Amino acid sequence: MKKAIIVLLVLGVVAAGAAWGLSAPTRMSEAEAAALQAGDPSRGELVFWAGGCASCHAAKDAEGEDLFKLGGGLKLQTPFGTFVVPNISSSQSAGIGDWSLTEFADAMTHGTSPDGRNYYPAFPYTSYARMNAQDLGDLYAFLQTVPAVETEPGPHELGFPYNIRRGLGLWKRLFLDPKPVISEPVGDAAPDPELWARGRYLVEGPGHCGECHTSRDFAGGLELSRWLGGAAAPTGEGTIPNITPSEAGLGSWSASDIAYYLESGFTPEYDSVGGEMVHVQENMARLPAEDREAIAAYLTAIPPVANGGN
Protein backbone atom coordinates (compact mmCIF):
# COMPACT_ATOMS: atom_id res chain seq x y z
CA MET A 1 0.00 0.00 0.00
CA LYS A 2 2.81 2.39 0.93
CA LYS A 3 4.56 1.78 -2.39
CA ALA A 4 1.31 2.32 -4.27
CA ILE A 5 0.80 5.67 -2.54
CA ILE A 6 4.34 6.72 -3.37
CA VAL A 7 3.83 5.73 -7.03
CA LEU A 8 0.58 7.73 -7.17
CA LEU A 9 2.29 10.74 -5.63
CA VAL A 10 5.14 10.55 -8.13
CA LEU A 11 2.70 10.22 -11.03
CA GLY A 12 0.76 13.17 -9.70
CA VAL A 13 3.88 15.31 -9.54
CA VAL A 14 4.87 14.27 -13.06
CA ALA A 15 1.38 15.02 -14.38
CA ALA A 16 1.35 18.40 -12.65
CA GLY A 17 4.76 19.22 -14.09
CA ALA A 18 3.64 18.24 -17.58
CA ALA A 19 0.48 20.32 -17.28
CA TRP A 20 2.51 23.30 -16.06
CA GLY A 21 4.85 23.02 -19.01
CA LEU A 22 2.08 22.56 -21.57
CA SER A 23 0.16 25.53 -20.20
CA ALA A 24 3.08 27.93 -20.55
CA PRO A 25 2.39 31.04 -22.69
CA THR A 26 3.95 30.82 -26.15
CA ARG A 27 5.50 33.48 -28.37
CA MET A 28 6.47 33.91 -32.00
CA SER A 29 9.49 32.00 -33.26
CA GLU A 30 12.67 33.91 -34.09
CA ALA A 31 11.91 33.50 -37.79
CA GLU A 32 8.36 34.84 -37.38
CA ALA A 33 9.58 37.79 -35.35
CA ALA A 34 12.28 38.53 -37.93
CA ALA A 35 9.61 38.75 -40.64
CA LEU A 36 7.96 41.69 -38.87
CA GLN A 37 8.73 45.08 -40.34
CA ALA A 38 7.87 48.69 -39.62
CA GLY A 39 4.41 49.23 -41.03
CA ASP A 40 2.48 51.88 -42.91
CA PRO A 41 -0.20 53.61 -40.76
CA SER A 42 -2.42 54.34 -43.77
CA ARG A 43 -2.57 50.64 -44.64
CA GLY A 44 -2.92 49.88 -40.97
CA GLU A 45 -6.12 51.89 -40.77
CA LEU A 46 -7.71 49.52 -43.29
CA VAL A 47 -6.62 46.55 -41.15
CA PHE A 48 -8.12 48.40 -38.16
CA TRP A 49 -11.52 48.55 -39.88
CA ALA A 50 -11.30 44.99 -41.16
CA GLY A 51 -10.61 43.83 -37.60
CA GLY A 52 -13.44 45.84 -36.09
CA CYS A 53 -11.16 47.16 -33.36
CA ALA A 54 -13.32 50.21 -32.59
CA SER A 55 -16.43 48.07 -32.14
CA CYS A 56 -15.06 46.71 -28.88
CA HIS A 57 -12.34 49.12 -27.77
CA ALA A 58 -14.05 52.49 -28.38
CA ALA A 59 -16.83 53.80 -26.16
CA LYS A 60 -20.33 52.49 -26.75
CA ASP A 61 -22.12 54.42 -29.52
CA ALA A 62 -18.91 56.28 -30.43
CA GLU A 63 -18.93 58.05 -33.77
CA GLY A 64 -16.52 60.04 -35.93
CA GLU A 65 -13.16 60.75 -34.36
CA ASP A 66 -14.27 59.16 -31.10
CA LEU A 67 -13.95 55.77 -32.83
CA PHE A 68 -10.18 56.23 -32.52
CA LYS A 69 -10.32 56.73 -28.74
CA LEU A 70 -9.66 53.13 -27.77
CA GLY A 71 -9.87 53.29 -24.00
CA GLY A 72 -11.86 50.07 -23.64
CA GLY A 73 -14.21 49.44 -20.75
CA LEU A 74 -16.97 47.59 -22.60
CA LYS A 75 -18.23 44.62 -20.59
CA LEU A 76 -18.77 41.38 -22.50
CA GLN A 77 -21.20 39.04 -20.77
CA THR A 78 -20.48 35.35 -21.44
CA PRO A 79 -21.26 31.98 -19.83
CA PHE A 80 -17.72 32.04 -18.38
CA GLY A 81 -18.06 35.44 -16.72
CA THR A 82 -17.75 39.09 -17.66
CA PHE A 83 -14.76 40.19 -19.71
CA VAL A 84 -13.76 43.85 -19.58
CA VAL A 85 -12.31 45.15 -22.85
CA PRO A 86 -8.84 46.65 -22.33
CA ASN A 87 -7.38 50.00 -23.34
CA ILE A 88 -5.40 49.68 -26.60
CA SER A 89 -4.80 53.37 -27.11
CA SER A 90 -1.32 54.84 -27.51
CA SER A 91 -1.13 55.64 -23.81
CA GLN A 92 2.22 54.58 -22.37
CA SER A 93 0.70 53.65 -19.01
CA ALA A 94 -2.91 52.61 -19.59
CA GLY A 95 -2.72 51.39 -23.19
CA ILE A 96 -0.20 49.73 -25.50
CA GLY A 97 1.93 52.75 -26.34
CA ASP A 98 5.05 51.23 -24.81
CA TRP A 99 4.72 47.84 -26.52
CA SER A 100 7.22 46.77 -29.13
CA LEU A 101 6.07 45.42 -32.49
CA THR A 102 7.09 41.92 -31.42
CA GLU A 103 5.12 42.18 -28.17
CA PHE A 104 2.10 43.36 -30.15
CA ALA A 105 2.45 40.47 -32.61
CA ASP A 106 2.81 37.97 -29.75
CA ALA A 107 -0.47 39.23 -28.31
CA MET A 108 -2.26 39.13 -31.66
CA THR A 109 -1.08 35.72 -32.83
CA HIS A 110 -0.33 33.82 -29.61
CA GLY A 111 -2.59 35.45 -27.05
CA THR A 112 0.41 36.23 -24.84
CA SER A 113 0.91 39.52 -23.00
CA PRO A 114 4.24 41.37 -22.85
CA ASP A 115 4.64 40.26 -19.22
CA GLY A 116 4.07 36.60 -20.13
CA ARG A 117 0.42 35.97 -19.25
CA ASN A 118 -2.14 34.10 -21.32
CA TYR A 119 -4.89 36.29 -22.70
CA TYR A 120 -8.51 35.16 -22.58
CA PRO A 121 -9.97 34.26 -25.99
CA ALA A 122 -12.63 36.96 -25.66
CA PHE A 123 -9.77 38.70 -27.47
CA PRO A 124 -10.06 36.80 -30.78
CA TYR A 125 -6.41 35.86 -31.21
CA THR A 126 -7.44 32.42 -32.49
CA SER A 127 -8.48 34.29 -35.65
CA TYR A 128 -5.75 36.92 -35.60
CA ALA A 129 -3.22 34.06 -35.56
CA ARG A 130 -3.91 33.80 -39.32
CA MET A 131 -2.81 37.38 -40.00
CA ASN A 132 0.31 37.99 -42.04
CA ALA A 133 3.38 39.89 -40.89
CA GLN A 134 2.66 42.88 -43.15
CA ASP A 135 -0.79 43.49 -41.70
CA LEU A 136 0.49 43.08 -38.16
CA GLY A 137 3.18 45.68 -38.79
CA ASP A 138 0.74 48.05 -40.47
CA LEU A 139 -1.87 47.75 -37.71
CA TYR A 140 0.78 48.31 -35.05
CA ALA A 141 1.96 51.44 -36.86
CA PHE A 142 -1.58 52.78 -37.07
CA LEU A 143 -2.35 52.14 -33.40
CA GLN A 144 0.67 54.23 -32.46
CA THR A 145 -1.09 57.21 -34.09
CA VAL A 146 -4.43 57.05 -32.24
CA PRO A 147 -5.07 59.35 -29.25
CA ALA A 148 -3.74 58.34 -25.85
CA VAL A 149 -6.59 57.54 -23.48
CA GLU A 150 -5.55 57.34 -19.83
CA THR A 151 -8.51 55.40 -18.41
CA GLU A 152 -8.00 52.04 -16.69
CA PRO A 153 -10.95 49.76 -17.58
CA GLY A 154 -10.49 47.43 -14.62
CA PRO A 155 -10.16 43.65 -14.27
CA HIS A 156 -12.33 40.89 -15.68
CA GLU A 157 -15.11 39.61 -13.44
CA LEU A 158 -14.52 35.86 -13.39
CA GLY A 159 -15.01 33.12 -10.86
CA PHE A 160 -13.03 29.93 -10.27
CA PRO A 161 -11.68 28.17 -12.32
CA TYR A 162 -11.92 30.70 -15.15
CA ASN A 163 -9.85 33.24 -13.24
CA ILE A 164 -6.77 30.99 -13.51
CA ARG A 165 -5.02 32.31 -16.60
CA ARG A 166 -2.35 29.62 -16.66
CA GLY A 167 -4.94 27.02 -17.64
CA LEU A 168 -5.57 28.93 -20.88
CA GLY A 169 -2.26 27.62 -22.13
CA LEU A 170 -3.82 24.16 -22.35
CA TRP A 171 -6.90 25.66 -24.06
CA LYS A 172 -4.67 27.32 -26.65
CA ARG A 173 -3.00 24.02 -27.45
CA LEU A 174 -6.42 22.67 -28.40
CA PHE A 175 -7.89 25.63 -30.25
CA LEU A 176 -5.14 28.01 -31.42
CA ASP A 177 -4.23 26.98 -34.97
CA PRO A 178 -3.02 29.40 -37.69
CA LYS A 179 -3.98 27.08 -40.55
CA PRO A 180 -6.97 28.08 -42.74
CA VAL A 181 -10.33 26.62 -41.76
CA ILE A 182 -11.45 26.02 -45.36
CA SER A 183 -8.71 24.73 -47.65
CA GLU A 184 -10.33 25.41 -51.04
CA PRO A 185 -13.59 26.61 -52.64
CA VAL A 186 -16.50 24.19 -52.69
CA GLY A 187 -19.77 23.99 -54.59
CA ASP A 188 -20.75 24.82 -58.13
CA ALA A 189 -19.43 28.38 -58.00
CA ALA A 190 -15.97 28.86 -59.45
CA PRO A 191 -14.68 32.12 -57.97
CA ASP A 192 -11.41 33.67 -59.00
CA PRO A 193 -8.80 31.81 -56.88
CA GLU A 194 -6.96 34.94 -55.76
CA LEU A 195 -10.19 36.75 -54.93
CA TRP A 196 -11.48 33.77 -52.94
CA ALA A 197 -8.16 33.43 -51.07
CA ARG A 198 -8.26 37.12 -50.17
CA GLY A 199 -11.81 36.67 -48.87
CA ARG A 200 -10.75 33.67 -46.83
CA TYR A 201 -7.94 35.69 -45.28
CA LEU A 202 -10.27 38.56 -44.36
CA VAL A 203 -13.06 36.35 -42.98
CA GLU A 204 -10.93 33.79 -41.15
CA GLY A 205 -8.21 36.23 -40.05
CA PRO A 206 -8.60 39.92 -39.23
CA GLY A 207 -12.38 39.94 -39.77
CA HIS A 208 -12.74 37.07 -37.22
CA CYS A 209 -16.27 36.36 -38.48
CA GLY A 210 -16.20 32.82 -37.13
CA GLU A 211 -15.85 34.04 -33.56
CA CYS A 212 -19.53 35.01 -33.56
CA HIS A 213 -21.06 33.05 -36.44
CA THR A 214 -19.71 29.61 -35.42
CA SER A 215 -21.04 27.53 -32.55
CA ARG A 216 -18.77 26.57 -29.66
CA ASP A 217 -18.24 23.42 -27.65
CA PHE A 218 -18.40 23.09 -23.86
CA ALA A 219 -14.86 24.47 -23.52
CA GLY A 220 -15.60 27.55 -25.61
CA GLY A 221 -13.69 26.35 -28.67
CA LEU A 222 -15.12 26.85 -32.15
CA GLU A 223 -16.79 23.81 -33.72
CA LEU A 224 -15.04 24.08 -37.07
CA SER A 225 -17.20 21.37 -38.65
CA ARG A 226 -20.06 23.89 -38.33
CA TRP A 227 -18.02 26.83 -39.59
CA LEU A 228 -20.10 30.00 -39.97
CA GLY A 229 -23.30 27.99 -39.50
CA GLY A 230 -24.69 30.28 -36.82
CA ALA A 231 -24.52 30.19 -33.05
CA ALA A 232 -26.23 31.15 -29.83
CA ALA A 233 -25.51 34.73 -28.85
CA PRO A 234 -22.81 34.91 -26.15
CA THR A 235 -25.22 36.80 -23.90
CA GLY A 236 -27.68 33.89 -24.06
CA GLU A 237 -30.32 36.01 -25.77
CA GLY A 238 -31.13 35.18 -29.39
CA THR A 239 -28.96 33.67 -32.08
CA ILE A 240 -26.31 34.81 -34.53
CA PRO A 241 -27.26 33.83 -38.08
CA ASN A 242 -25.93 31.21 -40.43
CA ILE A 243 -23.87 32.87 -43.20
CA THR A 244 -23.02 29.76 -45.19
CA PRO A 245 -24.52 29.14 -48.67
CA SER A 246 -27.32 26.92 -47.34
CA GLU A 247 -31.07 27.36 -47.27
CA ALA A 248 -30.75 28.21 -43.58
CA GLY A 249 -28.13 30.82 -44.41
CA LEU A 250 -27.26 32.93 -47.43
CA GLY A 251 -28.15 30.30 -50.02
CA SER A 252 -30.48 32.67 -51.90
CA TRP A 253 -27.95 35.52 -51.92
CA SER A 254 -25.58 36.11 -54.82
CA ALA A 255 -22.02 37.31 -54.31
CA SER A 256 -23.11 40.77 -55.46
CA ASP A 257 -25.94 40.71 -52.87
CA ILE A 258 -23.44 40.02 -50.10
CA ALA A 259 -21.00 42.67 -51.30
CA TYR A 260 -23.78 45.25 -51.54
CA TYR A 261 -25.03 44.37 -48.05
CA LEU A 262 -21.54 44.92 -46.64
CA GLU A 263 -21.35 48.27 -48.40
CA SER A 264 -24.87 49.62 -47.81
CA GLY A 265 -26.43 47.63 -45.00
CA PHE A 266 -29.37 46.57 -47.16
CA THR A 267 -30.38 42.95 -47.79
CA PRO A 268 -31.75 41.72 -51.15
CA GLU A 269 -35.24 42.13 -49.61
CA TYR A 270 -34.37 45.75 -48.70
CA ASP A 271 -34.33 45.09 -44.99
CA SER A 272 -31.60 46.98 -43.18
CA VAL A 273 -28.82 45.64 -41.02
CA GLY A 274 -29.57 45.51 -37.29
CA GLY A 275 -28.15 44.58 -33.92
CA GLU A 276 -24.42 44.11 -33.43
CA MET A 277 -24.01 43.61 -37.17
CA VAL A 278 -24.51 47.36 -37.64
CA HIS A 279 -20.97 47.99 -36.39
CA VAL A 280 -19.54 45.20 -38.54
CA GLN A 281 -21.26 46.49 -41.67
CA GLU A 282 -20.08 50.04 -41.01
CA ASN A 283 -16.52 48.76 -40.67
CA MET A 284 -16.79 46.71 -43.88
CA ALA A 285 -18.11 49.75 -45.76
CA ARG A 286 -14.76 51.48 -45.13
CA LEU A 287 -12.82 48.75 -46.94
CA PRO A 288 -11.98 48.84 -50.66
CA ALA A 289 -14.76 47.45 -52.86
CA GLU A 290 -12.52 44.57 -53.96
CA ASP A 291 -12.21 43.41 -50.35
CA ARG A 292 -15.99 43.27 -49.93
CA GLU A 293 -16.17 41.37 -53.23
CA ALA A 294 -13.52 38.96 -51.93
CA ILE A 295 -15.50 38.32 -48.74
CA ALA A 296 -18.59 37.67 -50.84
CA ALA A 297 -16.71 35.28 -53.13
CA TYR A 298 -15.51 33.32 -50.10
CA LEU A 299 -18.94 33.11 -48.45
CA THR A 300 -20.56 31.74 -51.60
CA ALA A 301 -18.02 28.93 -51.95
CA ILE A 302 -17.69 27.33 -48.50
CA PRO A 303 -19.44 24.22 -47.14
CA PRO A 304 -23.12 24.87 -46.38
CA VAL A 305 -24.33 24.20 -42.85
CA ALA A 306 -27.98 23.23 -43.10
CA ASN A 307 -28.95 23.40 -39.42
CA GLY A 308 -27.95 26.97 -38.80
CA GLY A 309 -25.57 25.83 -36.06
CA ASN A 310 -28.12 26.65 -33.37
| Largest sheet, spatial ordering of strands | 1-2
- Count the beta strands: 4
Number of domains: 2
Terminal CA distance reads 51 Å
Mind describing the biggest β-sheet?
Answer: 2 strands, antiparallel
Q: For the residues shown, what is the average pLDDT?
A: 90
What structural category arises from helix and sheet content? Answer: mainly alpha
Keywords:
two-stranded antiparallel sheet; 2 domains; Cytochrome Bc1 Complex, Chain D, domain 2; 4 strands; 310 residues; mainly alpha; 13 helices
Topology:
Layout: H1 2-22, H2 30-34, H3 41-50, H4 53-57, E1 75-78, E2 81-84, H5 101-110, H6 125-128, H7 133-143, H8 168-175, H9 193-204, H10 210-213, E3 231-232, E4 239-240, H11 255-264, H12 277-284, H13 289-299
Antiparallel strand pairs: 1-2, 3-4
